[in-house]
Design goal:
CATH class: Alpha Beta
Radius of gyration: 21 Å
Structural class: alpha/beta
Helix content: 25-40%
Oligomer: single chain
Order of helices and strands: EHEEHHEHEHHEHEHHEEHHEEHEHEH
CATH architecture: 3-Layer(aba) Sandwich
Distance between the termini: 31 Å
CATH topology: Cytosolic phospholipase A2 catalytic domain
Amino acid sequence: MILHQSRFPSAIQLSVDPVCCPWSAHQGGQFIASFAALGFVLLSLFLVAGCTAVPERHHPLPAALATKVRIPGISGGRYWGDERPAELQAWLSLPEATLRERYGGIMGRGHNYLIISGGGSNGAFGAGLITGWTEAGNRPEFQIVTGISTGALIAPFAFLGPDYDPVLREVYTKFSTRDLAEPRGPYQIIRGDAVTSARPLRQKIADYLNDDLLAEIAAEGRKGRSLLVGTTNLDAGRPVIWDITRIAASDAPNARELIHDVILASASIPGVFPPVLIEVEADGRRYEELHVDGGVTAQLFFSPASADWGRISRRLQIQGKPRLYVIRNAKLRSNWQHVERRILPIMSRSIDTLIATQSIGNLAELYIITREQGLEYRLAYIPQSFNAVSSEPFDKVYMNKLFRLGRQRVLAGDPWFVPGEND
C-alpha cells in the first residue's frame, strides 16, 4: 500500500547494528570491540600511510538545500522516517474512484503486513520461517513488507511470494563470508571508509534483483501493495524510508541502480562496509548523500505507524483487523556470559547489551502502536534455547542450522508470540 506517511518509532535506538553484517547478533559487540584493538595496531602505520588516497566526496549536499532535494526522475520515492509526510493528508482526501484505480488490488479484503528486522547471518532464521510458512499452507499475501539491513535483503523475495522461496534458501544457506565481502589491506583501512569492500555483495544484489524481478515488484505496486526499505542518511543523522515499489514503477533510467544502492546501503554497517553515495538533485544541480545501515536508526519499522488506521481501514474497506507479523532475527534476551575484567570483553558485552535492550524497546513501542491503532500483533524470534555459534561472519553451517530452525518452528505449529494469549 503506497501511503506516504510514516515515521520510525520515536524511541529509535542509536546502534551499531550487527544485523546488517554477516555475523550472529551476540557477536556484534565482539566484532566492534575487536576493531578497537585493531586500531591500536594500525596506529603505528598511520605516518607511513599519509600518502595513501583518501575517498573524497566531490559534491556533498549543503544543509541549506536539504528541504529542496529530490531524486532525479523519481517522484515520491522516499520520505523521512521520523516525521509525518504532507502526502498523507492528500491521500486521505482522494476520491473513492481514484482509490479504486490505484489500490483496487488491496481494497475490500483482509490485510497482512510483514516487518523483517535486521540480524546479519541470523536472517537465515527469517528466511527459513518464511519458506516453512509456505510449506505449512497458511502464508498470506502481504499488503506491506518492510525490511532493515538483512531484512532489506529478505524483503523483496518475501514480498513477491512463494515463487522466490528457493532464492531465499540459496541466499541464506549457500554463501560464506568470502562470497559477500572483500577484506582490505591495513593502508586502505587507515585512510579509507571501511575495513572491507562490499563489491561482492553489491554484485549479488544486482544479480538477484534483475530487471525481471523489478518489473514484478512494479506490477505489485500498481495494485497498491508496498515494499519499503529503511536506510540512515548519515549527513542528516535521520532515518529514510524508501518506497521500492514506487521507484520500480517509475520507469526512470536510474531506478534499478537506485534500488540496488538503497538495499546495499541498508545493509552497510558503518566502518565495516563502505557507506553508499546516492545521487540527488537540488536547485538544478546534482549532489550526493551518504547513506548507511538502516539499523543505525532503527532495528525494524512499520509504515505508516502513526497514522489513523481506523480512517485508513474505512477508506480501503479493510475486512477485519489488519494483522502485523514481525520477524525478529535475534533472541529477545542476551544469554549469560562471564565477562573478563579487560577492555575488549567489557566493550563487547556492553555493545551487545545496548543493542539487545534497545531492540526490545523497538518491539515494545511497535506493540503499543498496534494496540492504539487496532492492529493485531504477531512476533516470531529466535528462541533462547538455540545455542549454536558462528565461526565467521557468514558461517554456512551456522546459517543452515538457523534456516532449519525457522522452517521447523512453522511446520511444528504456530511460531507466533501473541501478547496476552501465549505469554
